Amino acid sequence: MKEISKRFGEVQALDNVSMKIGSGEIVGLVGENGAGKTTLMNILYGLYKADKGRIIVNGRETNIQSPKDAISHKIFMVHQHFKLIGNFTSLENIILGSTSGREDFKRMNLQVYRKRIEELMREHKLEIPLDEKVKNLPAGTQQRIEILKALYRMAELLILDEPTTNLTPQETDELLRSVLEMKKRGISVVLITHKIREIVETVDRVVVLRKGKLVGEVPKNEITPEKVVEMMVGRKVDLESELSNIIVPRAPGAEEAEILRIEGISTTGDEGIKLKDISLAVRRGEIFGIAGVSGNGQKELCETIMGIHRPIKGRIIYNGKDLSEADVKERIKQGFRFIPEDRMIDGSLPTMTLSENIILGFQNFEQFQRHGLLLYEKINESARKAIAEYEIRAPNEKIRVGKLSGGNIQKVVVARALLLEPGLLIAYNPTRGLDIGATEKILRQIVELRNSGVSIIMVSEDLDELMLVSDKIAVMYKGEIMGILSKESFDKSKIGLMMAGIREGGIGK
Amino acid sequence: MTAVSKTTVKDYLKAAAYYLLAIAAAFGVAGLILLTMHQDVLLGYKTILTTSFSSLPNFALTIFKFTPIYLMGLGFSIPLASRKFNVGIEGQFLLGAVGAAAVGITLTGMPGYIILPLLLTVALIMGAIWATVPALLLYFFRVNEIISTILMNFISFYLVDLIALGPWRDVTAGYPMTIPISSSARLPIIGSQINIGSLFTIALAVLGFFILYRSTFGYELRASGSNPIAAFKFGIKTSYLAPLSLVLGGAVAGLAGGLEVSGLYFRLVEGMQSNYANLAIIVSLMARGNPVALLLTSFFFSMIEIGANAMQRTMGTPYEIALITESLMMLFVMTVDAIRQKRR
Amino acid sequence: MNYAELTSLLGYILVLMVPYSLASMGIMVGGRVGVFNVSTEGVMLSGASAAFLVTYFSGSYTLGILSGIGVGLLIGLMMTFFANKLKIDQFIVGILLYIFATGFGSLLYKEIIGITLYPPRVNLLPRIKIPLLSQIPYLGPILFNQDAIVYITILIALLLYYLLFKTSFGLKIRSIGENPRAADALGINVFLMRHIFTLIGSALMGMAGAYLALGFTGIYTNTIVSGRGWISIAITIFGRWNPLWILVGALLFAGVEVLVYTLQAMEVSMPYQVLMMLPFIITLLILIYTSRKAEMPAALGKPYDRESIEE
Lengths: 509, 344, 311
Prior knowledge:
CATH class of chain C: Mainly Alpha
Distance between the termini of chain A: 48 Å
Radius of gyration of chain A: 24 Å
Largest interface: B-C, 42 and 41 residues
Mean pLDDT of chain C: 89
Helix content of chain C: over 70%
Oligomer: heterotrimer
Shape of chain C: globular
Shape of chain A: globular
CATH architecture of chain C: Orthogonal Bundle
């Protein structure tokens, strides 16, 4: 790819980026969130069109206008958010779109397709059930389906966008092994990621982007995580030491009061993953982390604690009060605050103003209304303060939130959670999609809250981040808690095993 | 990150100019249609746009039409805030009319100040009841309100036919309608033409605006329309706000029906709903659900209606041309919106 | 009632099945690519108006049906332009086009024929007696003595079923309605297919309207559709967006309509207005029933924008 430039509105997403990919080569494409990695590959795959630049495949200049063109050049991309049809079976998903012309209109010959896929599954050691509806399959399996889609089409270049987000550490290892397997067969792979540590062993080369520009390339033997991060961010960053400075370590033996106790919570599973007999306790001024591959009940647990779902069994006691029957509004009044999973889908009101978004959940509070009528001066004032404090890029508090960028919407969601003296903050991936600077800031804020006595339940898919700030970590797997570890006993491989369903001291269910 | 530009007076003017362009385009298409029918295009434009202001009776007529259009528009706007399309305003209007006629016909010999409030309340309640069926279907079975409210419309047509040809039938009339309501049940008139029903519109506009945009209830309603999932997760009871908004919309539409019976027809007449529903939908969409802006759009369309009717009388042009123009107007306005969105 | 009357009555069920099933299949076809076109009632009216006028003046049934289809295509073009290209809310566009098409259809008729005391008539589509098959006792005269469009409708249903569920092409089309992003990433031409199938869907609706005028009533009035378009939406949902089930649903509703007429003719002691309400009440009940197992294309009703940021 030569001199690719791309602009989205007023943002220069890519500026004159060039990169080469050799045959049978594994290239790591790294950079922060928003650096342009996905955009670059989307252009290669035909989903976006570059404003400037050329793409040359196998020595010949090409004009890739759509994924169809990319696929015809044997380029295939597996996205971070899987592009699978939930209501179709795995088989149907793999063969979808693989035929064209006359063959399209003939009766589908499922036996022939099936045979071919089974052969591929054996060759590459990627097992999947072929006749299950994809929406019922777990993330790891879905990823394998995506890879099989590429192999079925005889891809020569496979692009994997943030492939390890939804995997346990063990599954990540398996994935990287299959990537090496593909290299043996001459398939080139581009791994887009911001988690350098994981891919260091596997890649031949690392290409670093920052804010849309090419910073440089690092060949295999010179790769160190520190060097790459420095190139990604532009300065020396050592998140670990900075944060550990502000975490007030607990004096051993100091008994802090338990503020939240959850006993034996079980749910029906109608809303997603079924929770089975969850019990945990959170102390005042503590960060309680929840680890696990996404989709194992973390979201459901957060929402049940928040009051969004009703458990069929169990109790939730907060500050001495049994809140098991309390609805969300009541819990918010008691001090519960929520940063939901998806800022757009769960967290924002796109057609309403920033002010109105900030007070979502607080609209009945005395500060903001009298006799049922909203006090807009107060509301707008709070909104203005939040804009300043979190550096939200918005002209004023009256702007419709739908017009803000993702990162700014996340800031609104966080601002809302921290607006009025939180007692218990339930945060799901609070730093998702934010660049290192903002991530740092929010983690710092969360730690400061903890120091001032607020309790925080934090779910994160980034195990490193979680291990950094949490006082305790509970690992979830298929709706159950596999184990709870305190800071002293944090161990990545132990946690990894629990994430895969293997309890301490034996094989889990 | 992007720097978003501030909205200035200049931007508002630009927006207004674009919308005028859209409206002009719709009229342009109408003009083309007129041409194919060998009509005088300029005369047509003149008639449509100026008839309302050409004489006092015409202006009064415009106000007469404006009232039900506005109220039904409000009946569509309230559910619209929670993203529900209450296409059943027609049926709710008719049920309100039925209720009003019932009160007006049966309660004779009572003074106006008792009958009228009663009559209007009954109209309100009947409209609400008619909307309650789709509301319940929505709440319990998640049935799409577009289909359910329209089906209720059709049922209401036959109901009206049944009543208009039933025991209250006016046998002297050549058309299905009931006997007139008692004189005390009729709305008092201001001046010599306009009844007080029109004042309701102003009152409701102000009330509607405050409730929708300044109250916590309105906030929660709009939130559940903006993003029902987020609203729900932060404690708003979206599951019954949407059906409730339908019932409220039905009440307002029912009131419109009651006012038509008590202020204009003085009886239940089959077909009295005219095409107010279609107009109400368009004016509501155009006003983006804002009860105050609705006053303007309703008046504008009422004006066009009077003009179109005049055109049919004097030029022989089918009045349907108004419907075509009006629906195109809305489509073009939305086109303008969509294009401007893309530019950003 | 004697045997001949019963046969002709049952035959009417097949006749009425046509507009219901064509309209419902029109909605389904659009729905399978994610476009929920609710303008059906208006398109049917315009289709009926155009078809009647063309047949009345030209004497040709074929031209009439084609004009119905043509009008459907025209309004479908508007639908796909506003909803797919400009990405305006599909329901709003659908409702506005319903209003537009209603005005258009009645304008057309009013201009050309105007208001008359006795509406002009055309002869209904001629029946085709299929040799041998129509001799079968009992079923023969009902099933195999119908006009051409009835047979064509059934063929369309079978064809659509085969196309959508038995071919790779169908798989591609259905994927567009399930997850357009996924389909796009696989090289399927989402945009083109959405346009084409919205048009086809609308054309079918226009054809349904044309048949009402030419195959059922022989005249045109502004009330010729009287709710069948809206009911068709319910039939589509009831039929789970599957042509064969839609056919069943259409037969059921045609049956209800015929039942209502029969009861009226038999002068049952119920006021006829109540009988006329029956189809709509039954539709409401069906909607309740289908809500249990609502199975519709996952991405129905949403516009698709390739470059919209997916967080």
